[in-house]
Amino acid sequence: MKKLVWLFLMVFIAQTAMAESPQSHNQKNERMSPVLLVIDVQNEHLQFMSEKEKPIAFRMINGCIWLFRQKGLPIIRIYHTHPQWGPKIDSEAFEFPSSIMVTDDDLKIVKNFPSAFKKTKLDSILKEKGYNTISAN
Question: With 0-12 CB in 10 A as exposed, 13-18 as middle and 19+ as buried, what is 106?
Answer without folding.
Answer: middle
